[in-house]
Design goal:
176 residues; 2 domains; 7 helices; elongated
Length: 176
């Protein structure tokens, strides 16, 4: 009898470790897929990373900068809901006049750029300055309207961090 219990325990432990290894492999594949999504989005918008240059400074397309600013504003809120993320995609599509697929890829690329900037709070002023360099004040209204659309699906108003970032955004866009 003790022999059967020992054999059962060994089989249970082996099954447990096999499941853990399988889950680790699945997570690795998911991480590789995320990296591939960012790579494909960057390629689609012609984004090329340059040596000795911050990724935010390598942006050549004002749509990428505007999309990244909108993503940064959304991430300033505590935990964005699925409705807010859907509203962000719709806002990018409507206000930047891009297709749904392009809006989703702008969001993916924007999330990566925000991460490279060290977080949403640091990303807003940096990306806003880059947006101003690329297009002047042309995309200010598109970003502002996108923020209003996103705020409707949250608490209805901007959070304190978002209000502070909006002031930094208007200053960087030289609207004050």
């Amino acid at each position: 009898m003790p022999f059967l219990l020992g054999l059962l325990a060994v089989a249970g432990a082996a099954y447990f470790w096999i499941l853990r290894a399988r889950n680790a492999a699945e997570m690795t594949h998911e991480l590789l897929d995320v990296a591939n999504d960012v790579r494909l989005a960057a390629r689609r918008f012609g984004f090329r990373r340059r040596n000795n240059t911050h990724p935010a400074e390598a942006i050549d397309d004002p749509l990428v900068a505007a999309g990244a600013v909108v993503v940064a504003f959304l991430e300033l809120d505590d935990y964005p809901t699925a409705e807010q993320k859907t509203a962000m995609i719709s806002a990018l599509r409507e206000n930047l006049h891009v297709s749904h697929d392009d809006a989703e890829e702008l969001a993916v690329l924007g999330r990566w750029l925000v991460g490279e900037c060290g977080g949403a709070a640091q990303a807003v002023p940096r990306l806003a300055r880059k947006l101003y360099k690329l297009s002047g004040q042309d995309h200010f209204n598109a970003v502002a309207q996108s923020l209003q659309m996103i705020a409707k699906f949250g608490s209805g108003t901007l959070s304190g961090k978002q209000k502070d970032a909006l002031q930094e955004f208007t200053k960087a866009m030289r609207m004050q």
